[in-house]
Queue: 4 jobs
Job 1
Amino acid sequence: MTEIQFIELPKWGLSMEEGAVTRWLVAEGASFGKGEPLCEVETSKITNEMEAPFGGVLRRIVAQPGQTLPVSAVLAVSAEASVSDAEIDEALAARGVGAELSGDSARSGQGDDAARNLQPVAAPRESPAPAAVSGATTVPGVLAGATADDIFATPYALRFAAEHGIDLAKVPGSGRLGRVSLEDVHNAVRDAGGTVAAPPAPTRSTPRSTQDDSDVDATPVARRLAAELGVNLHDCRATGSRGRVCVADVREAEQRWGRECEDRPQPASALTTVEAVPLTSMRRAIAQRLQAAKRNAPHFRVSVDLEIDALLALREQINATVPAVKLSVNDFIVKACASALRAVPEVNVQFDEDAQAVLQHSAADVAVAVALPSGLITPIVRGADAQSLAELSASVHALVTKAKAGQLAPDEFQGGTFTVSNLGMYGVREFDAIINPPQAAILAVGAGQQRPVAVDGQVVVRTVITATLSCDHRVIDGAVGARFLQALKRFVESPALMLV
């Protein structure tokens, strides 16, 4: 058999377990060279370009955009033009890659529900759908099957599919993010040669109330919900406290009237839609890590006010006299933290929960929180205590630029011994932050503000920053956190100490 090479999902960092292709940069049939970008891959930390491990021709794309796969999973197949599609199918089958993840079904975006959800919205039908026919619904065999639990579809589409044995993974969705509607299911059945029975005319043993329900005793929330849903309060059973109609009663009445409630004209307030936006891999990882940190690490917080007038004066002098150096206040704060970590090494630690051990580090690897549209990432300035202010500023600037471009390498954001989170640019006076495990402390920095300060019995104006240190009490005691803030205050208010 002619050589066939698989392009696999690489492992970027020890903690990476899965990733999702967000965009292919090389089309099927195109040639590529070793080291050229093939696709963009999103992990729980970053979205980065994946470089080709070898050169070749991209014959088959297996992983569709939005599809989450484990490390080492097959993303694509490379082979020369002389290799037949049958040989590629055979090679994929030998690797355990099913037909549902490759071939024409995958390339059309119907091989995976997550992939389909990120495909472009289906184009409007060129001609109106044929009217529903009376009699039973007939489902072609091509659509038969069981629907997975995680299919992105409306409740009515899911109910119809369950009743008639339709696999919604085979139905293209026309809703936002590829959501499958009941109309999409009907259209798919008709397009495949089946028929859809006309819905039975609704029958009611009791006519719906039309009389004024303003005198019905109901809770304010229930009355507002009934107005939005078009439910008359006279049609609701009163099971709430003191015999009032409650929200559950309104919901029960709506379900009792069934589909008729869906077809009625809705007030303007009910036309507002709520869209369910799935969490990105990064946001999901942030949620899991911070929830675990908040649950497992007993946080305590200590705060200090830092006068930064001397720091601002030194910054202005350096920026005005040293070519190509533009220091920010945050650069000074990061450098001061690194210097304080060297002075109080008990804070420059990580906590290994599995081994129940404290990892003492000799170098101060300070992470800087960077806000991205997709979440938060903390690139790390390695050995910040050994760098000059100019070197540290350049390191921070380069890391922030790479973070915003999604080009951080795994070792540039994993680990670290301490984190600085600065919201001063947003005018926040003070806040506290959640520790980034396995680190044991994080500093939250607010905005510099001019405040009245008592000096030798006189009130003077000083530029002050409030900094709050969050510590893991399993590792750091209150006195240790206080000593760290003392050291930090000394370096910030006497910034010349950071130059020697």
Job 2
Amino acid sequence: MANNGVNLYGISVQNEPDYAQQWTAWTASEIVRFLRENAGVINTKVIAPESFQYRKNMSDPILNDATALANVDIIGAHLYGTRPADLPYPLFQQKGGGKELWMTEVYHPNSTDSADLWPQALDVGEHIHRALVDGRFQTYVWWYIRRSYGPMREDGQISKRGATMAHFAKWVRPGYSRITATANPQPNVYVSAFKSGARIVVVTVNKNASAVDLAFTIRDTGSVTAPTWLTSQSATLARATDVTISNGAFNAQLPARSIRTFVVN
């Protein structure tokens, strides 16, 4: 790959070893053995186990084996059909120090509907929120980019699902850290926040059929004007009304079935 101008960042032991044909299937014990005996000589970052459904019985044995764990850099998982209740991973928080946690493949909510259906596309916003906040994943990687159900339509234009994804990806860039926020301040409302230097990005998702008013307080923030962007039934990554922040506090409305991003410099 390097000889052809492609520098690999990481390599996975096996894509979806628990959702595979016979020749690509691996058991958890086989992955542990490979990590123990072979992965140490791989000269990229090593990713495992990439269960198709974040099944912990595939990754628990890695975390519980000190030698295998030493030879893996990234615990990878896919979230096809994963229940929200299965997103938290206490064992990783306990034993995964120094390792990264990546969500390496998914499409959501399905591959049959148009990516422009609304409010179905808003489900992507909730899904990303839950992956980053509940699951504490450090990456969120979509399956095919250009597909009728993907973030880009077959004509190359951004879809509603893509616009929803962009509310995170456009402003939450590599190097940002997620900071604590009240994740579910009201039913069907989701809030996440990220920081890099003095810049704070707040992403809000309102899945209710009516508008919601929220009061925000951002610690250690003075008085500034913050731009916002909105995607809804009638808007797509549209510049929305700025908010005025006074001593770190401001009120904002989240329109019905919408996602709104606030960028505070």
Job 3
Amino acid sequence: MKSKIIKNIMTVAMSLILLLPLMIAVVPETKAAETDPAYSKIKERGVLVVGLSADYAPFEFHTTVDGKDKIVGFEVDMAKEIAKDLGVKLQIKEMGFDGLIGAVQTGKIDVIISGINATPEREKVIDFSKSYLAPKQTIMVLKKNEAQFTTDVNSFSGKKIGAQRQTTQETFVQNNMSSATLVSLQKVPDLVSQLSAGKIAGVVLNDPISSAYAQQNKAFKVIFPKPNESEGAISVAMPKNSPVLKSKINESIDQIVESGQLKTFQKKANALMFNDQSFWSKYGNLFIKGTLITLALAAIAVIIGIILGTIVALFKLSPNFILKAIGNIYVEYVRGTPLLVQAFMVFFGTQVIGLNLSAFAAGSLAMGLNSAAYIAEIIRSGINSVNYGQTEAARSLGLSKNKAMRYIVLPQAVKNILPALGNEFVTVIKEGSVVSVIGVGELMFQTGVVQGASFKPFFPLLMTSLIYFILTFGISRALGYAEKRMARTSR
């Protein structure tokens, strides 16, 4: 009897030993099915960070609600519902469309809800939820030119056709309209401006967008090309390998579509697009906000530029070979690369090393680092313009080299470099428009927002040009006054 019991115990033990590897393999899968890094991050933070480009009415756009500027649209309402279903708060980060995929890859945002299509190329680097909309591709033309074109895409042969950069509309032109010339721009309002001016023959847009433009402006006509191809599955984009987050979002999308909420959100967005407020009451605060941010960017950039530029200039003038090499390399590298590239490098690069800078902070830093290279050359030339006899006289009076530079040379150099520094400040104000691609809401960014929300491509540009002129003219006059005062006191 005892031997039989021992035999049974041994059999059970051996079975457990044999099953142990399988049990070990199954446990992690069970845990993986409960969470993933992206979902865990959202739940721990208690906030779903959604990236979008709010120049795409009725999907997402700016308007004034109860006297306050708000980002609205049916996808914004969807984002609120998804965040609610996840049990977290919603935070919206606005940026240029072509920066969204990089932002989700580097963790700047959690998901993209911005009319983005699931394409094979994009699916290689990010994941997508199930589709909640599949609009048709359309070609918007000027009504006065509609007789020249038919639903056959070949009727646009030899013409310039516009499409938003890195979208399925761009791919549609490349694949189906090879005999036409593609014009790719970042923002839809810029494409519509070119169409209005006759620079291009048509713009490829999905039907909710083109229909909204045509409804607002009778000068436009919408053509549905044949074959009438869907632009693809509009979905929510998220980081790769996020099965739990994907599952949760899919459940939320099912509920939104099946309950009819999506149609309700679309009707609400259309009503907000065409309310009866005046242009300035709807969008005036955006111009004011953009102007203030532009001035803040320029001020911070110039302060960083002056401090760092002075250091770099002294490095270049140093007899120390290493310091001189550092100064030369910095100036040549920064001046030899576009500010646009530098803005992306700072915005995404700082995230990689663990610094989660806001778009404004990254934009200010990028502009400051860029400006420092030019200010370094301005200061270096100003120092060289001071007669070396001034340094010799200071040294003969017992001043050290550093004190001679600080108290004798630099004060005289400032008078020489002030006009050039003023020009640099004016230049920085205008260059602020470049950092709009990472979502800094400066003046040109807000102008694009107004263009997209108002369907008026030219008038917002006119307003912006006047604001820029007032800013630069005022600063130029103030600097001219300061120069005269300094010239008077130096006599």
Job 4
Amino acid sequence: MSEWSPDGATWNENWDDGSGYDGLTVAADIQNTLTVGNANAYVYWTGASLGATRGLIQLANPGDGYRVSKRYWALAAFSRFIRPGAVRVPVTDADPALRITAFRNTDGSRVIEILNTATTQKSADFALRGGHDRHPDAYVTDETRSITPADVVSTHGTALTATLAPRALTTIVLD
């Protein structure tokens, strides 16, 4: 298990601004922790806080308002679809701009998380074991989208093709 929270007192809602505490940075850190670190969990230290912090959600002080950072959506893309008890499964792609992790949940559903670090659109092809009977669900998180359903994946028999937006996290769910 690992935890991470960038130190500092600057509120930032951006997905990809190169600050080191934007959503893309958190998404890359989560993938790195789960793959290179072989961790089985990821905890972000500060969920919600008052004022200018680097938490996931900024609460109004005073008031009932709040603001959500793209760091929140990076973490949500992993935790919403990869469920407790999931196991990481092997996945390969030769493109160094694509960071890919795949998981099988205890209910049999499969999740592929693809972080396109390139500044251009990319395509990725995968061979699925056991095929797939219906169209997979795909969700994109980037500067303008937050786990937004997107028609970016197609399957044909055991072949899956994904069209990946630049500097974006694409989550593919196969039931």
